[in-house]
Amino acid sequence: MADNAFAGLAPLTPLLDKCVHCGFCLPACPSYLLTGKETDSPRGRIYAMRAGVDARLDMTPTVVSHFDTCLGCMACETACPSGVKYGPLIEETRVAVESHHERPAGERWFRRLLFSTLPYPGRLRWLALPLLVLGPLKHSAMIRNLMPARL
Questions:
Q1: pTM for the complete prediction?
Q2: Contact call for residues 67 and 97 (beta carbons, < 8 A)
């Protein structure tokens, strides 16, 4: 594998090794509960991180999608009997994803819009104003067809 995207995770190998893949994190993980996919669970992501550090896995769009499903809620940390600190692992993985993975233009613009709006309540209020007008019309088929599916 030519990709060295997971090299930044190498210093966190002791944290990766703490995971014994017991599965106690599964019922605590919202993305796993929603998708039912092992790869969208904390232990599945830790397995992928480990495979990336060992150069058995590249930073492909499929791999990135599994990391993107993590909400970062850290509910898995409190459920883990081994005391795995998942926070630093997913944070460093997100850094690796953003620096080694080229997202499609539409996704880049959508993410830019979210990250430049959600942390700022004033901006969010301004964007919510059209909802006052569109709110009563939300059941209209014409309005639904005009809105992007992602919204």
A1: 0.77
A2: yes
